[in-house]
Amino acid sequence: MPDTKTSVGRDRRRVAAEQPYELSYFKRKHKLTEEQARKIIKEAGNSREKANALAEKVKKA
Questions:
Q1: Which Pfam families does its entry note (predicted)?
Q2: If 0-12 CB within 10 Å is exposed, 13-18 middle and 19+ buried, where does residue 5 land?
């Protein structure tokens, strides 16, 4: 258990693409294929904000 209570829990601003549940959630949320989701997350790094913005662009295209 960490000493500081501020560092407890997951950081929801980041996408952990190596975790199957994260990838599954992201692709369902944006109605993407697994390949599209992986490509977007790779391009955006682990920033959830950037990944969501890129996914919106893909959906509009």
A1: DUF3606 (PF12244)
A2: exposed
